[in-house]
Each structure stands twice: as structure tokens, then as C-alpha cells.
Amino acid sequence: xxxxxxxxxxxxxxxxxxxxxxxxxxxxxxxxxxxxxxxxxxxxxxxxxxxxxxxxxxxxxxxxxxxxxxxxxxxxxxxxxxxxxxxxxxxxxxxxxxxxxxxxxxxxxxxxxxxxxxxxxxxxxxxxxxxxxxxxxxxxxxxxxxxxxxxxxxxxxxxxxxxxxxxxxxxxxxxxxxxxxxxxxxxxxxxxxxxxxxxxxxxxxxxxxxxxxxxxxxxxxxxxxxxxxxxxxxxxxxxxxxxxxxxxxxxxxxxxxxxxxxxxxxxxxxxxxxxxxxxxxxxxxxxxxxxxxxxxxxxxxxxxxxxxxxxxxxxxxxxxxxx
Amino acid sequence: xxxxxxxxxxxxxxxxxxxxxxxxxxxxxxxxxxxxxxxxxxxxxxxxxxxxxxxxxxxxxxxxxxxxxxxxxxxxxxxxxxxxxxxxxxxxxxxxxxxxxxxxxxxxxxxxxxxxxxxxxxxxxxxxxxxxxxxxxxxxxxxxxxxxxxxxxxxxxxxxxxxxxxxxxxxxxxxxxxxxxxxxxxxxxxxxxxxxxxxxxxxxxxxxxxxxxxxxxxxxxxxxxxxxxxxxxxxxxxxxxxxxxxxxxxxxxxxxxxxxxxxxxxxxxxxxxxxxxxxxxxxxxxxxxxxxxxxxxxxxxxxxxxxxxxxxxxxxxxxxxxxxxxxxxxxxxxxxxxxxxxxxxxxxxxxxxxxxxxxxxxxxxxxxxxxxxxxxxxxxxxxxxxxxxxxxxxxxxxxxxxxxxxxxxxxxxxxxxxxxxxxxxxxxxxxxxxxxxxxxxxxxxxxxxxxxxxxxxxxxxxxxxxxxxxxxxxxxxxxxxxxxxxxxxxxxxxxxxxxxxxxxxxxxxxxxxxxxxxxxxxxxxxxxxxxxxxxxxxxxxxxxxxxxxxxxxxxxxxxxxxxxxxxxxxxxxxxxxxxxxxxxxxxxxxxxxxxxxxxxxxxxxxxxxxxxxxxxxxxxxxxxxxxxxxxxxxxxxxxxxxxxxxxxxxxxxxxxxxxxxxxxxxxxxxxxxxxxxxxxxxxxxxxxxxxxxxxxxxxxxxxxxxxxxxxxxxxxxxxxxxxxxxxxxxxxxxxxx
Lengths: 323, 737
Description:
The complex is a heterodimer of chains A (323) and B (737).
Chain A: E1 5-8, H1 12-17, E2 21-23, H2 29-34, E3 42-45, E4 54-56, E5 62-65, H3 70-74, H4 77-82, H5 84-92, H6 96-101, H7 104-108, H8 160-166, E6 170-175, E7 178-183, H9 184-187, E8 206-212, E9 220-226, E10 237-246, E11 249-258, E12 265-266, H10 268-274, H11 281-291, H12 303-321
Parallel strand pairs in A: 1-3, 2-3
Antiparallel strand pairs in A: 4-5, 5-8, 6-7, 6-8, 9-10, 10-11, 11-12
Chain B: H1 15-19, E1 35-41, E2 47-53, H2 55-58, E3 63-68, E4 99-100, E5 106-112, H3 115-122, E6 126-131, E7 147-153, H4 156-162, E8 165-173, E9 185-191, E10 194-199, H5 204-215, E11 222-225, H6 241-253, E12 257-260, E13 276-284, E14 290-301, E15 323-332, H7 346-364, H8 368-374, H9 392-403, E16 415-417, E17 420-432, E18 438-445, E19 450-453, H10 463-475, E20 482-485, H11 502-525, E21 541-544, E22 547-550, E23 559-560, H12 561-568, E24 572-579, E25 591-603, E26 608-619, H13 626-645, E27 676-681, H14 705-717, H15 728-732
Parallel strand pairs in B: 1-12, 10-11, 14-15, 19-20, 26-27
Antiparallel strand pairs in B: 1-5, 2-4, 2-6, 3-5, 7-15, 8-13, 9-10, 9-12, 13-14, 16-17, 17-25, 18-19, 18-24, 21-22, 22-23, 25-26
Helix pairs in contact in B: 7-8, 7-14, 10-11, 13-14
């Protein structure tokens, strides 16, 4: 860990006016600072900002402040009742202690769990652009099969973001140039030749809140996370599904996957295969095949392709059981 | 006579201080003026240090010293690094020279006034290396390593070749890291030429001996204090380099120095269970009687220490078989030094041997338990000695009955609960019973309390409670009024907490010391004015329920011991005792045995395998402390679930860096992974090991769990996992399920 300056911001305007790294729960940033992976000279504490509310949005959706803790969001009555997939995803992530600290905005910005990224004795294109990627020829069991480039195959580790992807969440940001919003799917960037650039945030720009759109009546959702042990492990593959079935047919479906992509991976291809079709296992399987069509296995992670398909199929089965 | 507390559910005597946070672990001790040492570890797998640039670090605020091989004070080797009181886990003292033998080896230590300053300084030390290509896998070594250990009876090769039924399989267990919750750490405090070390160790006496030798000071000038240990699992049996570094640095900067090993370096500098590769060949008759066992084991070790995992330890004695050959080989690699980890040798060894037994059962279409019963060893065929006490058959039968084993249908995937496929497995547990020498002291005080002390330690296993129970058993003083004092090398010498021997070793000494102090008390009772026994013959008296009374009379007729001490106006009486090994130990083979029964649930749709229940029946002699004893067995089964399904230290083959060197990526079982567990103690006292008939139980619970789980996994999925841990991708490789 390197010495750093520390200030506290009391307003959003005050926060974005300062040039520094924002810290909220600290579960990623402080962890990585201890490893010298993150070496900010200035850290701005944003915990005093008034961004800790979950409120009803005018369109019937939900507005979630960036500082809402993962535990609070998971147990929020509206989230539990209407956005089940989000509550389930949050509760499948990390540990209770971490969830009590981790925030909504911070969760979206989690860095990868790639072994090589986390060790400064290794080259890493995400940490030091152009230095190389030891994961591609290394132990890559936990790495991505979707979205990878020759420069980076690190997965995005969040569960929450996978559920939010299936919920078509909007991210609201504020910087010195003002406010803007963007769909979560567009918030994240593919690694390409710039794996160090993980999202569209400009330097100093702050996530202020996210909004979940209202869901049509009768919409069901489910999050399924598959991993080696039962708790406290990142997904090897996960699936978030939000589905509306009408008369035995899938009227509308949103499918996202975790643990397999360089970003929380929404599959519009899978959704297209399924919409309008009968809600049955055979069609779910066809959707899952479409979701992984472009998957590229590395030496140790080939099993993730089949595992992710099974996660998608099972999640759809469970979600549509009572539809 | 009041009923004895032995074997009852006594609550841990140290429980309250632990759960309230009052218990002080090694680096918790508040030491005035303490400064901090932060280790710097090598980032290459093999080579030489060519330069250490400390120029920036040395000028940083608060920095007291940057120590390394070029400038550190002398540290010596011990005379016989594998013998008690001289046992160093890594025989090479840190900073001995400029050679790097493994990734994560200590190469320098930054010492500063605060932890933050030391950490910052450490990151500004520049170390240059001449890197050599490290040997990181056994396959990197082309030549066949020599056989280091060989056991043979009969002619196993010929018998195997002529056997009608054969099993030939190779099993691999991965490197496992102990990962106790409490990280290794030391605070070293010099007072003139004397040094005190606040340690986390499984052996205060051995630690004292090693530090005396490595620091070059007389043994009476070394004091080791280790009142609580946040588990060791074998990793804290003997000193590791950081302890020497703390003492050396404290001597150099003339301040107390604290060195806490970070979790990441716990994977390189404080030992691990080495990977094992074991080929097992079984030859059997068509009705399942073993004709031959050929067990060939191999494990990697470091360049510094030849550590053999001893996988074939149980092979010559666990099943009846006329022809047995067992060999062990070592391959030296550029990895950190391995050391014993809970159930060393027997744990991976029984995984391989019992897996092969199960494969034999499948081949013969016999029940796996039936195969074991047909090869039941009535005596120890390796030594031709009778067992001191063996009730393994009853373990199998009791376990089978409680588990419902007779309902098992042998077909793969043939048992279900709803949509889930069930798999049942069972396995044999075994561990040698040892008893060594120990001393102990017992004190009876006029305030009505007793105190028992011994320089052994409680590593979380319940030793405090065990020694209190024994004093209570002898004196009748309730456990609540007995203070147990352990973990201090200035106390009467006691055993290392290892080899599951501490209980059997220490209780004879505690019992004898109790009897000696009772003898002193009775002598006092007959010469004290006002004592109802004044003038009586001391041999006609006894002590029970905390009272002195006439033999044969009810304790209530007598006098509380503290009353006699008050009448005599003495503060306390104290007595010691020294006891040795079991008198007839060379006439018997002493072992504990057990049987595990496990059920897994398999959801093939999502390739999810989880343990649903476990049942263990233990034949471990008489149980002294029922609660902490049960805790040992259930905890070991938890560890077995981890071993079978989760644990694996993953080295980067390029440099042997452990990639998953943290608690998030090195998977151990969480609470959510642990199902309903049950443990039954048969509780037959061992007539040979000592008065109480108690054998140790720290390790046996781990042996046999992994093979029971791979058996259950095969039963559910049809996939035979011969290289642990069982992983999703291994189960998915068989698309038929």
C-alpha cells in the first residue's frame, strides 16, 4: 500500500470537483490498494453524500442511490417483491460482512478477480497497458469465454450487475460537465486493445444512482449462480432471467450471464430465439445455445460454456414454473 | 462417590475468553515500544540475489533497519533439525545466503516504528535477481527419484500378477495449505541477553530449544509464551523463518519486534501438505480377499528439506493381506517447504488405498463395506503384534445401522430424493496412537481453587479442558474451580501438540501430579491442629468431591481441602509428576479406528454436487472431553469435505507462485457447505495406553473422508475422481450423466 491523501466530500458537486478516487464501502478499492494494484494519490470518501436511498421512480420503477448498501438493497421490500432476481443476485455475492459494506455504485465498478491482475509481479494489460497477459497461457479456469480479446480475458465479477443487466438498468452519472445517463449494457466496455478502460466513466465522474424500469404485471425473475462451493465464491457461471409468459408462450424475456464474460453478459441473441416461443425446456436450451454461440474456450475454462448453458436453462425453468 | 466428569459434556474452560475476545493470541499481546517487521519475499522461483538496494527505504520516516543476507546478525542451524527440541520446519535459517530456493522466500525484512512505515519501506526495497528456471512440477524432473522408504512382506508383485481380480489406478491429491484462521506471527522482546517470544506454536518446548540454538543463547534465556493458538493443523509444529527474523531483528534494533506473516505468504513460508501421486495395485481373489497390495507413493518437497508425506503408513496394517509392498519417493522442486498437515501421510494414503478398495468392490459387484469386512485385519500384520484395542468392525456395523446402509442400491444413479440423485459412500479411518513423556504440576490453594500447569499448549483442540477434567476427576474439585495454565515454556515440560498424542501424553502426568498433591494434602491433614484427622494414619484417608475424608466414608463426612490449608495457614500445596510412554507399548500395536458414511446429492441439470449428511463412528479409546472431542471429529470431517471437494493450492508452473494465495480463492468449506453431521464414540478404553484408556483424536477424523466422498460421487454420477479435488469440470466430462 502506498501513502495517499484522504478527504471527505459532503455534496455530489463537491465530490466531483475533487480529483481523486472515490471510496464508498472500500471492499474493492482498499483491497486492491493493499496489493498495490490500485495506487491512488488522493482518495475521496463519498459516504456522506445523500445517495443512500431507494425510492419509487415516476414510471413505477425504482431509483437506487449509489451508496445503498448491498445488504439493504437485497432486503428492500420492493426489491424482494418485484425485482427478485436482484435480491437473489446480491445475496449470492460475497459474504454478509462484505455486503454490509459494499455499495450499489461500487459493486458496478468491481474489478476482476483475475489472479494475475491482482499480483503486481505479473504483467497485466489491464493494470499496465501493453505489458502482456499471463492468463491467456496461464491458469485460466475462472476466466471469460465471452468478450475476451488477445489482450485480456478477465471476467467481471459482479452478481448484482448481471441481474441489473437483465432488468435493463440505467446508470446515472455526474461529472464536472454535468449529469448523464446510459444503459448498463453500454456502460461497460469490451476489453479489446484497451482492457484498462472498463467502462465509460470519465475521470472524476461519479455514479449517483441507477434506475430499474417498471416490470409488466406477471413478470417473473430468477438468479442462479453455479460455483464450486455453496457460498463466498465468484460465479463460474450464473444466469439472471426476467421473463413474462402469456398463455404458455414467452412474451418477453431478458437473459444475462455472469462468470463467463468480460462484462456482465446480456444475450439479446438468446432473448430473440426465445421470444414468442413456447416456454419449455427445449426452447430454453435453444436460447442457451444461442447465448454461448460465440464462446471461445481457453485451456482450463471450456466447461464454463456448457455450465452457463445449463444455468440459463435451469433459471428459465425455475422462473417460468409458476408463470 | 460423585460421578466422574471424564467423558461428560464439559464446556470448554477457555470458551468464554475466546468468544468475548479476551483471549490474547500471539500478536495481540500489548508490548510497550513494539516496532514492526514487514517481510519482503522473493518474486522468482529459483536463482540468486544479485543486489539489494535499500538506499531509498532506509531514509524513509520511522525506518529502523532493512535486514537481509548481506547485513543481518548471525542465525545458526540446529544440531538435528528433525528431532524434538531441535526441530526446525525449514532447516535453513532465513537470509543464510543469496540463494532463492522458492517463490515467496523471505529475502529481506523492513523494520520501522509503525506497521505502515515498515510496509511502505518494504515496497521501496529494490531487489535484483539472477533468475534460473525453477523446477515446479514433478514432471519437470526427468530422472526417476530414488526410493526413500520401502516396506515389503511376501511377494506382492508375483501375487498381484497371478491374482484373478486386479485394480491398478493412480490417485493424486493436490497441494493443500493449512490456512489456520490465526496467521503465523511472533513478537520478540529482548531483555539484556534473555529473549521472550510471544508465539503461535504447537510446541512451546520445541520452539524454545530451536530458538536457543538458532540465536546462540542458553536455553534458560529463551522464554516462549503461546497461551492461545488459532489453530495449527500441523503448520505450527515447529518454528518457521519469521520467528527467527523477529528475534534477530529485535536484537538488532534493540526494540521489541512484531512480525506477522501475511496471508499470501502463509502459502509459501509456513508449510503445506505436498501434492501426492500414488499408484495402487490390488490383487484379489474372485470373492474379494486381498492377495496383494502394491502401493507406490511420490511427493514433491523443497530444495531445503526432505519431507516425506508417508502416504503408505497405513498400507501394511489396515487390511489383512499376505503380500504387501509399499514404497515412497521424493522429488525436489523449487517450492516452499512442506510439513505435516493434519493426518499427514495417512490422509492422502487412505484416500488412495480406500479408493482402490472401492474400485475393487465395484469390479466384484460387492458392497464396499463387505470388501472391507472380508479383509479385516485381526492383528497388525506389519508387526505381528495384537492391537491394544480394535473395534473397527463395530464402527462399520454401528455406522451402517445408523446410516441405513442396507438400503443402499449399488447401481450408479439408482438412488433419488425427488429430482436429486443420491450417492452413498463409506470409508475407513485410522491413526496411530502415541503416548510420550510429560511433566505437570498441580496446585491446591487455600482459596478453594486448583491450578494445573504444563508446557504443552491448547491449539484449539480442548487441552485446557482435558487437563482440568483430569484434575477434577482425581480431586473431585469442580472444573469451574480449576485453572488450567498452558502455553508457556517456563512451566513443567510437556508435549508438542502433534501426532494426536498430546492428550494421551499429558493426562498421565496430570493424574500423577494430582495424586502427588493429594498425598501432600493427606500428610498435612494428619499433622494439623484442628484437623479432624490430626494424628490419624494418612494412608487411611482419601480425597474426593474436593474433600478429605476417611477411605470408605462419604466425602460429605470429611473436610474441604481449602479448610485444611487455612487451618495450616499455608497458601497452597503444589506437586509435580513426570510420566513416560505406555509401559507395554512394544507388546501391542496401538491405533485408533473409525468409519465414515456420507451422502451426496447430485443435480445433473446444473452439475451441482453437495454433501447432504455425514456420520462417523470412532473407536478412539475412552473420550475424556466429550464436547471438544466431538468438535475434533466433526471439524475433521469438515476438513475432509474441503479436501475432497474444494481445497487445492494452484501453483503457476512458470515460477511456482501459489496463484490462489488468499482466503477468497483458496476454497475451504463454508458453513453453507456443511450438512447434518453426526459422530458416535464407541468409547472403549484402551487397556494399554494408560489409566484412562484415552487415545488422541485430533487427526483420525480426516482420514477416510475423501475416499468416502469420491465413492459417493461415483455412486451418484458414475464419475470416478482419482485426482482431488472433485471439480465441476471433472463431473461434467462424463456427458452421460
